[in-house]
């Protein structure tokens, strides 16, 4: 089982590098590749291949990424990056929606790979959806 997870993580990393060569823009202080790498330990949970709940390492990476997303533009860019990656990596949308709650991340909406990144975001510390014009 351990070898399968390691092989899966390596596959995700290789695919992540391919994603970033196609979409290698810098997201202010974090690149798309760095955003994907911060969640690579979530891959077994997000794809439904392994764990029924996200690991501690997964939640730490998600928390770190959420803390770096401190402006509207960074949140939009990370959203677009992860949205594209979730499609390419076969992320289960139900698992993606569960991740913020299971990792105790204060989003006022569930992350859905079909979300419109240009119109919705949640500012850190706010408990309501904010529409961006």
UniProtKB/TrEMBL annotation:
List membrane-spanning regions: none
The record's annotation in PANTHER family points to: NON-SPECIFIC LIPID-TRANSFER PROTEIN 2-RELATED (PTHR33076)
Q: Which Gene3D superfamilies match?
A: Plant lipid-transfer and hydrophobic proteins (1.10.110.10)
**The protein's name in its UniProt record:** Non-specific lipid-transfer protein A-like
Q: Which UniProt keywords apply?
A: Disulfide bond, Signal
Family affiliation: Belongs to the plant LTP family.
CDD domains reported in the protein's UniProt record: nsLTP1 (cd01960)
Example GO biological process: lipid transport
Q: Where is the signal peptide?
A: 1-24
Read off the InterPro entries from this record. Answer: Bifun_inhib/LTP/seed_sf (IPR036312), Bifunc_inhib/LTP/seed_store (IPR016140), Plant_nsLTP (IPR000528)
Question: Which superkingdom heads the taxonomic lineage of this protein's source?
Answer: Eukaryota
